[in-house]
């Protein structure tokens, strides 16, 4: 019954910004569990980009530190990924993820393309 619904992808020029959203439905415990953003570029493995714990602690892959910010709004049951200073190498399909209870949940994925 849990669903993660993403929004906010698109095409942006290098140096631009984009914000991704991941809204959870069907779980009253979403706020208690870590949530993550992954990305997968063509021909590459899916990589963990950012994670936020239920307590608000964050972690990032080195390549996005200082540029990306993960946050959550528990009142809206939503996790965000603010992406600034975007680079062409950030181009990928981005997925939100959560492990709630004993199950894994993935968002549907959204394309982020950084190109001039």
Q: What does this molecule look like?
A:
The chain has 116 residues and is an all-beta fold. Helix content is 0%, strand content 53%. The chain is built from no helices and eleven strands. The strands form two sheets. Strands 2, 4, 5, 6, 9, 10 and 11 form a seven-stranded mixed sheet that branches. Strand 5 (47-52) and strand 6 form a beta hairpin. The protein is globular.
Q: What's the total number of strands?
A: 11
Strand content: over 45%
Low-confidence runs: none
What class would the helix/strand composition place it in? mainly beta
**Overall spatial form:** globular
> What is the helix tally?
0
Radius of gyration: 13 Å
Mean pLDDT: 96
Largest sheet: 7 strands, mixed
| SSE string | EEEEEEEEEEE
- Looking at how many chains there are and whether they match, the oligomeric state comes to single chain
Distance between the termini: 40 Å
Helical amount: under 10%
Lay out the secondary structure:
Elements: E1 3-7, E2 10-12, E3 18-25, E4 35-40, E5 47-52, E6 58-60, E7 68-73, E8 78-83, E9 92-100, E10 103-106, E11 110-114
Parallel strand pairs: 2-11
Antiparallel strand pairs: 1-3, 3-8, 4-5, 4-9, 5-6, 7-8, 9-10, 9-11
């Amino acid at each position: 019954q849990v669903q993660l619904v993403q929004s906010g992808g698109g095409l942006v020029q290098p140096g631009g910004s984009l914000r991704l959203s991941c809204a959870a439905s069907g779980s009253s415990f979403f706020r208690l569990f870590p949530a993550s953003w992954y990305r997968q570029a063509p021909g590459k493995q899916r990589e963990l980009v950012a994670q936020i714990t239920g307590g608000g602690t964050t972690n990032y892959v080195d390549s996005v530190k200082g540029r990306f910010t993960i946050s959550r709004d528990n009142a809206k049951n939503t996790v965000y990924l603010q992406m600034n200073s975007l680079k062409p190498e950030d181009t990928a399909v981005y997925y939100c993820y959560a492990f709630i209870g004993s199950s894994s949940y993935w968002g549907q994925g959204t394309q982020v393309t950084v190109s001039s």
